[in-house]
Structures are given as C-alpha cells and as structure tokens.
Amino acid sequence: MSDPATADDEVLSGEAVAIDVQPVGFFLRVLGAAIDVVACVLVFIAFLMLRLWLVSAVGYDDAIDRILLVVSIVISFVVLPCAVEVLSHGRSLGRLAVGGRIVRLDGGAAGFRHAFIRAVVGMLEIYSTLGGGAILAGAFSARSQRLGDMIAGTYAQKVRTPRLVPHAPVLPPMLTGWAAIADVARMPDRLARRISQFLQTADRMLPAARARIAHDLVAEASAFISPLPAAPDEAVLHAAMALRRERETRALLLSDDRAERLTGTRIGL
C-alpha cells in the first residue's frame, strides 16, 4: 500500500504507461513563466508604440485611446497566451525552454477552455500581484500548480525525458528451477506492453508506487502463469517476461526453419 504522504506527488496513468513522466519542478516552472511574461510584455510594449504612432499620425480622443489600451492589454496578456497554448498543444516559449507542456490532471491534452481559464486567472495572479500569487500557489502545491492550473484542472508535465535504453528481461536466478516446469501463456498485447514498460522504468519510481504497480500487474498476469511462484512480485514479472520472450523467440526460429525447408523443397522440385 502506498504512503499517503507521497500519494499526492505521484503522476501515473491508469494504464501505468507513463510511469516515468513527472511534473515540471517549481524552479523550472518559474523560469518558464518568466520567459513567457517577458514575451507578453514585449508584445504589449509593441502595442504601446503603435498607439503612440497612431496618436501622432492620426489623432483621436481619450475615449478611443482608453479603448485601444484595454484591447492591447487583453490581446497581450490573455488572447496571445491562450492562442499560443492551444495552437502548440500546451507548449509556449517558456515551456519549450524548460521542457514542459500543459496537460490535464489525467494526462490528457488540454483544450481551449483550460487555456482560457489559465490566461484569465493569470492576469490576476501573475500581473496584478507581480507573480506573487502564482509563486505562493506553486510553492505549496504538489505539482507546482498555480491558481489558474488548480481552477482549470491542469499542470505542467515534463516531456523532455531521458531516452529509454532497450531492455531485455532476464530470468532471476532464484526462479531457475521454477522456469523448468512453468507454463507462461501468451498475454494480451496491452498487458505485455504495460509489464515491459514497468520493468524498464521501475528503477526511477518511488518505492511505494513501484511495489503497488508490481503487485497489481502480477495479479492481472496470474491468469497466464502456471504455477505462480512464491517470489517477490517484480521477480515474477521479470521471470514471466523472460520465459515468454525465450519461447516466442524459439517459436519464430522454428517457423523460419520450416519456411526455409518448404521453400528449398519447392525449388528442388
């Protein structure tokens, strides 16, 4: 059973596929947000310069000038961040720099509604408080979420992950005797992929999450393993995948040999 103190920090999908995916850290989140703020401020300054040019070139009353100021603020700090986030599927200039993107809490892609809520709330927590509200919220939330993320149901997910090294399952020595009599049936592709991905990423998981997922996978795979060995759950998964891989490899080799013999016979005829 997982530790309640760490349960809120875990970022796991229901299929245990994105086990190694983690939220962007607090300091990287602040750095990415600072880059985005600078970009928005530069756009706003460009609008201000355009207003000054219009005043000198065309001339208009104060009411129109105030309207243009409001439009410039809305475009620079609400419309632009929202449009960039939607069109780039959760990315932005700052998040590209720190290797993150905005996703829903369940790991799915964020949409227009999420981007719009984040942009509107960002006007209050970032620009109205000079970033203080966002920093306080991010410092005390499990996934470095600012208030806009909490309201929209999103967080910044780390997408710049290390390249996975190809992993071949190895039979644990303690189960060598069991392997001689064991029968591991072909598992559904979905279950086999989940077990393989778990074994590849288990070393980078929290101990509580690692033990829980291993136990759940063994319980699901037990219908295809006979007899089920009395061994640690992770060792059982290693043994089952190694045995299944060995037998499937042998079956493929036999199939290739059979096809080669048939081809040779036909050529001889």
Describe the structure.
- The strands form two sheets. A two-stranded antiparallel sheet has the order 1-2. It has a two-stranded antiparallel sheet with strand order 3-4.
- Helix 9 packs across helix 11.
- It is built from eleven helices and four strands, in the order H-H-H-H-E-H-H-H-E-H-E-H-H-E-H.
- It has helices at residues 4-7, 26-57, 62-87, 93-98, 112-128, 132-139, 147-152, 176-181, 189-201, 207-221, 233-268, and strands at residues 100-104, 154-158, 183-184, 225-226.
- The longest helix has 36 residues, at 233-268.
- Residues 1-19 and 265-269 have low confidence and may be disordered.
- It is elongated, with a radius of gyration of 28 Å.
- With 269 residues, the protein is mainly alpha-helical.
- It folds into two domains: 22-158, no CATH class; 173-268, no CATH class.
